[in-house]
Amino acid sequence: MSFLKKISSMFASPSRSEESGYWIYARCNRCGEALRSRVDLYNELSLDYEDDTPVYFCRKVLIGETRCFQSIEVWLKFDQSRKLISSEISGGVLISAEEYKQARGLV
User: Fold this and answer.
1) Cys-Cys link to 73, which of 58, 65, 84, 90 (CB 3.0-4.6 A)?
2) Alpha carbons 72 and 74: distance in angstroms, whole number
3) Nearest-10 Cα torsion for 17, 65, 25, 82
């Protein structure tokens, strides 16, 4: 049985820690619904150059599940080490994880 596990581990993708993802929390301007989405920092970022300095960017569109279905656009910019530099949002406001949990009744 260990032989089959070794073979399957060769084809399985390596598991990444929580550090490989960045969570976005937002509230819709129209209906107030709290939304969240995850950005995979190793697969969803695009490379760009600003003043010969490499930076990564990502654009996410969030759509609510239960209320108005308005799209909320989020633009994120990360540095070389994939740390958030700046963020912009249209159609909503960014909120904290705690605010998201309270709005969803998870606390």
Assistant:
1) 90
2) 7
3) 40
